[in-house]
Amino acid sequence: VALEDGLWRAMVDPSQIEHTILNLALNARDAMAEGGTLTIAAAKADPTTVPLPDDLPEGDYVVIAVTDTGTGMNEDVMGRACDPFFTTKEVGKGTGLGLSQVHGIVKQSGGTMRIRSHVGQGTTVEMFLPRALPDSAERRLPRAPALRQRGGIVLVVDDDPDLRDLAADWLAGNGYIVLQAESGAAALAVIDERQDIDLLLVDFAMPEMNGVDLARAARELKPELRILFMTGYADTATLRRSAGPGGILEKPFRLTGLTAMVEDALRMEPSARG
Predict the structure, then answer these.
(1) How far apart are CA 113 and CA 101, in angstroms?
(2) Order of strands, edge to edge, in the sheet holding 112-118?
(3) pTM for the whole thing?
(4) Which sign does the torsion angle of CA 64, 252, 262, 214 carry?
(5) Whole-angstrom Cα Rg for the chain
(6) Which of 34, 79, 101, 201 has the highest CB neighbour count under 10 A?
(7) If you ran DSSP here, which 8-state letter would residue 23 be given?
(8) By C-alpha distance, which of 185, 227, 219 is closest to 202?
(9) What would the pLDDT profile of 91-139 be if each residue is shown by its tens digit?
(10) Tens-place pLDDT, residues 201-214
């Protein structure tokens, strides 16, 4: 860890920047299967000291850099690294959402991201975040939705452990209490045990019991349960007819879109869900 003395404060949601650093560190770990060095650095950046990316307005920034000494990326992979669900990992080894969500969080915070990488030499991901000035920090910081203050209990159900963990970690970082289940049967056991669950976030395509069947069974246990489906199924119109009440989040999705859908679902009165 290399932190410059006298660092400025940056304008970014604390839980979100924690999530991005963790995400980048996990990517770095995966790129160094045979060992290496992970460096997390933070420094002040302004036009007089550091060449800023072209898409940044002139000003003061805090740059957080995560560097590894792993396999690196070629130009083609770097060009697609921020595409949602793009991944070079084997099936089951990752969701491909990492750099896409990092880029989205940094842009949402008024900054930008820069990647430097060479095959066989490693990768550096730099996040440039606007400096928070005392007279403007409160005005410019993102305001947390009221639901995050109130919280909510979300049960995430997906047979894909990578996607399930990613969604759960993201929602937990945004202030929700999150439970997980890997199947419909496991989810019903949780719902039967806990009557305080506010929302069921469920994948449509699961073995043995799909999301629609789970939703119907879950509502028999808890009729007022709000339900949000995740699906990569192209014919969403047919799914909506068979799914009944409940929102549908189409894959691939951005994690910021997941947050918005969860907030909308929790904001609805149980009798008005749909």
Answers:
(1) 11
(2) 2-3, 39-45, 61-68, 122-130, 112-118
(3) 0.50
(4) negative
(5) 21
(6) 201
(7) H
(8) 227
(9) 334 444 467 777 777 887 888 888 888 898 999 999 999 998 765 444 4
(10) 998 888 888 888 89
Q: Which of these, 143, 274, 157, lies nearest to 214 by C-alpha position?
A: 157
Calpha distance 226→201 (Å, rounded): 9
Are 139 and 11 in contact, with CB atoms under 8 Å apart?
no
Q: Are 27 and 102 in contact (CB under 8 A)?
A: no
The model's pLDDT over 24-75, given as tens digits with 9 standing for 90+, comes to 888 889 889 889 999 999 999 987 777 788 878 888 999 999 999 998 887 7
- Token pair for residue 8? 């400025």
Q: Which of 50, 48, 72, 87 has its CA nearest to residue 125?
A: 72
Q: How far is CA 86 from CA 24, 77, 89, 108, 212, in A?
A: 15, 9, 9, 21, 28
